[in-house]
Protein 1
Amino acid sequence: MSQSFVLIVNSDPQSQGAQSALKFATALLESGQILTQVFFYQAGIYASNSLTSPASDEANLLEQWQQLHQTHQVELITCVAASLRRGVVDPELAQQQQLTGDNLATGFRLGGLGEFVTSSAKADKLIQF
Amino acid sequence: MKNLAVINSSAPYGCSNYRESIDLLLANASYDRPVALFFVGDGLYQLLNNQAPETIEAKDISKMFGLLDLYDIEDIYFCQQSLTQRNLDPQSLLVEGEVLSPQQWFAQLARYDQVVNF
């Protein structure tokens, strides 16, 4: 029987934790489990920064998340409070905060901790990376 | 609604864990989700009295933990072993909590559907 999962990604994209989160998410979906939401928190939010260009011999984490989102319509939520501190914003927030640009990658959506609460409170499993 | 345990295991100030942990905890409590707060290892240092965070431009932890009461967060637990290792007296900490032996710690933690660690 399939179970519903929420992932919370706190790890910086430069750490193995962030890569493990992606691997785990992929494995969940391939094995027919339900992945309700991936919530990016703390340094994990850097995964949704569109202004990254990893070296050609390194994994492109952002592209891989976007691919997963496109294939499986997984909800990718970037915590807005964590992002404001770290400099990842969508056009609306950039305008509101009078910032010079926006950089939230396609496929990701800014959301509050409340969205994490409501989805994780219903999920069978919460996994932290 | 699944209940949630938040574990604080890192010392304050060196990284943002202490702030972002309590943000997450309070957000969950504000939705009336049953939550508990566990302190283990260097996480117990968050609860020392007489901190002077303003000298390093850090947030005042005692104010943050003062909110626990307001949000009706009463299930607070300390790891006895970690207290002993650090020579800390649970009576002298910023908040009141129940001291648990390693065995009781895992039994208590097992009562929670979900766990996050900061």
Protein 2
Amino acid sequence: MTVKNPEFNASRRQPMSNTKLLMLIAIGIFIVMYAAAMIFIGKRFLTVQEIFNLLNNNAYLIILGCSLTIVMIGGGIDISVGGVVCLTAMSVAKFLQFSGIEGPLGVILSILLALGIGLFFGIEQGFLVSYLGIQPFIVTLAGMFLSRGVTTMVSSENVPIKHEAFLEMKKITFQIPGVLKLELGAAIALLILVGMYFLLRHHKLGRSVYALGGNQQSALMLGINVKRSRFLTYVISSVLAAVAGYVFIMHASSGKTSIGLRSEMDAIASAIIGGTLLTGGVGNVFGTFFGVMILTTIQEIMAASKVQESYWQEIASGAMLAIFILMQSVVLANRGKKINLLSRLKSQKE
Amino acid sequence: MIQRKNSRKKADLSQLIIPLAALGILILFNLIRGIAIGDLGFFSIGTRVNNDGNVVLAGNLISIIDDASALAIIAMGMTLVTAACGGQDISVGAVGAISGAVFVKVLDVFGLDKISAGSIIVALLAAIAVTIIFTLFNGTLVAVFKIQPMIATLILFSCGRSIAYMITGSATPQLNDKLINAIGKTIPGIPIPTPIFLVVIMALLLTLIFKVTNLRLYTQTVGINQGAARLNGINPTIIKLLSFVILGICVSLASMIQVCRLNQLSHKTLLDAIEMDAILAVAIGGNSLGGGKFRLSGTILGSYIILMLTNTLNDMSVKPESIKAYKAIVIIIIVIAGSPAVKEKISAFWKRIHNPSGKTVAGR
């Protein structure tokens, strides 16, 4: 995962970029967390299948993490993703249950429906943020209200799915030699993760997103179409949120209005733990992936450690979050000092 | 960047155009709708006799202004934090729950059945002290460790209500007392609900502070350019911390109002989701969410607009769960009307009307 690329480093003349450093910290923390889980809880965490279970149960969160990573690298924020997940899941459930279209056609139409919802929110929010210059927080807050409100209009009761073709698709699992099982949703999440990595690292759009998040003025001077790039980050984010909603409904197979409550905050937190900065320009989807794994491991540990009261779980995960955020800030601050010192020395020599 | 440049160019009062227009449209809409259905109940202001036999003001408009009290007070503090730090505190709801829990716990220590003015004051002071500790925690993360405010406050946002639960336990204590009613509803003999007075007092207090001290200037300077502020001898850290302290006072006051209004404390629902409304009030009031210049009157107007909107939708018998969707549409319209791109278009249009010859205006 952390393949060293000597040429890349040499051309930059920096020992390691902030992105990589923060991601390495996240990986380190995950390993420590998982080791702690193995020691204190044992048994379940000693099997490889446990990692796959974490993946299967939290596939939608990984996709949401990716969607927030690209928006945050571009210097924005998208808090509507939780609502879009809920609206997509509910609409798909309602469509499959009440449209009466059986067979694979119904499934394909439901996928198109989900993507349509994602595109609508993406285009609306991207246009408002990028072309009209409205603060992303307010736009996506309105998006959150809109999606949650429309969800209750679609249905305010639980909608269980009994569509046969859908249930067939839900059963698809990937058997990896041995007893390892990977659900379709988790496979989609991993595919998206890899796809986003290549988009951000090796595609023109991804590079311009980094540039515009780092410094909008310089990006503009470099000839990057800043408005279009920012617009596309929001479109990608919302479409991914819709995909996450579909993955969620494949896992849960019942639409509820409480789906994805606060999941936008979990996604933001995991992106941050993974080393994405809210100020933009720094971040990596694999870091976000480890952020999700850290958060879910904390939850698993809390659930397994026989702490009955849920409030202790919340306090503990809040404390963990505080520690990560503080550590990142301290590391980055000291790093900044070193770089400043170097540049100062250089300028003195000149 | 573009937004900030624009807002700095405009005169001070122009900030209030959008909220005032929104308020005007809401009032007009309700007027037309009221005439159409032949019921102007939305604007009713009357008097009624409450349970204690006092004459109090009642009616829809009064209840809107009354309901908005907690939101308006929190939004005032939020305005300051936004102006100084260029970010928002999303933990105000959770911290408000903690504050309410402390308030009730201290009252409980004195005995819930024999509440006196003294015990309320002690409880309020204790609540303010505890709340300031929590907001200062946020403030330290933001000002000293330079973490983005939304992320720093995410910590308390996710675990604040659990801390409140730890303080009070699962019970939802009931507060039935004349003094509590005097704070949450009306003081006997005065027909106007007390929370409205508290909003006025808080607004006047902050205005007085801004008039007497340089706090307003310093806060705006820190918000617009932190480096320049430091070079001018202002300590940005202290200004930011101060804004969080003021937010803490606002939050605990609002939380006390809400506890007294509802006559009970529930750590789950007290000031639920108020952070979003407060940020919205700041934005509707025409304040830049990126920090810098601010106007308290805009924020207060913004919070009344939000409540009036909710009330209008309630009136139109929209399902309570679906209100959010309509609210979102109205928010989108308001922010589009106030967006820099649209403002430029309008001012260009304005200039074209004033220069029919088609010459562009040279110079600025």
